[in-house]
């Protein structure tokens, strides 16, 4: 039973997202089936033995694999043009497995300092507890990456664009540094989405996603994905996942599988809306700063032009007057809801300094560019004019 279709590689990405990975049961269903089962029965004791010896290609137990989960993995691998993919219960399970499975006590990890809060926690606090040293660098400074490399460096980890300041890291350049050091590069590609950035083509070894965000796209389920070579995914990472158990529920995998079919349509529309809102914000007198990957004014517009084919669906902007002004704006929004999720069909707004980045000291926040007046906006599928009207009313309160 094949989970990734070789013929699919010749088809366009949109087509792969609708068809790749599909495995039909004896009933020939049109839509992919939800196999809500913990285990499988065998025709004979001999077949059961063969399955345990990996000599028979079927399924055994849902912590290891499941037909619906395998369809999601096959579809995502085909979409990314990757050899293999594994799905996990959450984005954090994907990040943790991708990094932890590759290291042991005595190894060293280098990561960009502008990371999603929990990712930074894993690198900064968790790895050292197990004897894996870690160094955080300014990801935009290539000399800092080179300087941080040690003989025992095994993994480089970055996120680009970063949360919430949309800082960009030159992925191809960091991939070269990783290669020269004999280390692997893991890229968290959530903010760019798989549509607008292809880290594997830029030289990354593994790409991780929180499928919770744009891939579900409708705020329903948690999920994670790890994409890369067979050698990496089917080696230590698969062992880590099977033995430690962060398996995705088949139901959640089914939601993600069906969501992949509409991902290009949704992300294109969200990006189009985000461009309209960002243009409007940049022309408005109130915000003291607007950061958007589609604007020439982005400090790293040259790298964006090289490595991204779209602007992401997130906007960061700053209002004068710090936290009070930011709170007045958030509280005045009626259509755009206050939430720390992102990539959703519903536009969402959040104040990073008091939520996602609350645990950092004011100095670290300042270093990361997270000011008290900064606001993060995730643009959804509403009509852009309604979003602009909501923001216009809210900005009047600042
Ligand atoms: C949300 C997010 C994660 C974690 O994903 P979960 O599904 O919440 O576990 C990791 N990285 C980035 C950039 C995210 O936005």
Q: End-to-end distance, in Å?
A: 59 Å
CATH class of the largest domain: Alpha Beta
Helix content range of the residues, please? 25-40%
- The Cα radius of gyration reads 22 Å
CATH superfamily descriptor of the largest domain: Type I PLP-dependent aspartate aminotransferase-like (Major domain)
Q: What are the distinct ligands in this entry?
A: pyridoxal-5'-phosphate
Strand order of the largest sheet: 1-7-6-5-4-2-3
The rough form would be described as globular
What is the name of the CATH topology of the largest domain? Aspartate Aminotransferase, domain 2
List strands and helices in order, with pairings:
Blueprint: H1 13-19, H2 45-52, H3 67-80, E1 84-88, H4 91-100, E2 108-112, H5 117-129, E3 133-137, H6 142-148, E4 153-159, H7 171-181, E5 184-188, H8 193-196, E6 206-210, E7 224-228, H9 230-244, H10 250-260, H11 263-283, E8 289-291, H12 301-307, E9 314-318, H13 322-332, E10 337-338, E11 348-350, H14 362-368, E12 374-378, H15 384-395
Parallel strand pairs: 2-3, 2-4, 4-5, 5-6, 10-11
Antiparallel strand pairs: 1-7, 6-7, 8-9, 9-12, 11-12
Bound molecules: pyridoxal-5'-phosphate.
Pyridoxal-5'-phosphate binds at residues 90-92, 95, 116, 118-119, 159, 163, 188, 190-191, 210, 212-213, 222, 224.
Family: Belongs to the trans-sulfuration enzymes family. MetZ subfamily.
Pathway: Amino-acid biosynthesis; L-methionine biosynthesis via de novo pathway; L-homocysteine from O-succinyl-L-homoserine: step 1/1
Enzyme class: transferase
């Amino acid at each position: 039973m094949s989970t990734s279709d070789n013929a699919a590689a010749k088809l366009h990405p949109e087509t792969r997202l609708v068809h790749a990975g599909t495995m039909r049961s004896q009933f020939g269903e049109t839509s992919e089936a939800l196999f809500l089962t913990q285990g499988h029965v065998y025709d004979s004791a001999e077949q059961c033995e063969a399955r345990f010896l990996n000599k028979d290609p079927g399924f055994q137990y849902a912590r290891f694999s499941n037909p619906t989960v395998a369809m999601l993995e096959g579809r995502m691998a085909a979409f990314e043009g990757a050899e293999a993919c594994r799905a996990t219960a959450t984005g954090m399970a994907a990040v943790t497995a991708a990094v932890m499975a590759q290291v042991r006590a005595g190894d060293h990890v280098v990561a960009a300092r502008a990371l999603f809060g929990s990712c930074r926690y894993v690198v900064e606090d968790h790895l050292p507890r197990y004897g894996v040293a870690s160094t955080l660098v300014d990801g935009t400074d290539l000399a800092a990456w080179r300087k941080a490399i040690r003989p025992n460096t095994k993994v480089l980890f970055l996120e680009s664009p970063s949360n919430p300041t949309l800082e960009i890291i030159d992925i191809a350049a960091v991939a070269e540094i990783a290669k020269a050091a004999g280390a692997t590069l893991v890229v968290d590609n959530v903010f760019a989405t798989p549509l607008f950035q292809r880290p594997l083509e830029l030289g990354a070894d593994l790409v991780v996603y929180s499928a919770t965000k744009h891939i579900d796209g409708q705020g329903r389920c948690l999920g994670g994905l790890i994409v890369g070579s067979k050698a990496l995914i089917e080696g230590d990472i698969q062992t880590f996942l099977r033995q430690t158990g962060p398996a995705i529920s088949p139901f959640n995998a089914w939601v993600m599988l069906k969501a992949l079919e509409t991902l290009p349509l949704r992300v294109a529309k969200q990006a189009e809306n985000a461009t309209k809102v960002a243009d409007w914000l940049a022309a408005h007198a109130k915000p003291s700063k607007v950061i958007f990957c589609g604007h020439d004014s982005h400090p790293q517009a040259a790298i964006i032009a090289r490595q991204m084919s779209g602007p992401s669906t997130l906007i960061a902007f700053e209002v004068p007057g710090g936290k009070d002004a930011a709170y007045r704006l958030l509280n005045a929004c009626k259509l755009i809801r206050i939430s720390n999720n992102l990539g959703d069909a519903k536009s969402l707004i959040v104040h990073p300094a008091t939520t996602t980045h609350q645990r950092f000291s004011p100095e670290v926040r300042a270093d990361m560019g997270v000011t008290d007046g900064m606001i993060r906006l995730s643009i959804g599928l509403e009509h852009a004019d309604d979003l602009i009207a909501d923001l216009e009313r809210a900005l009047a309160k600042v």
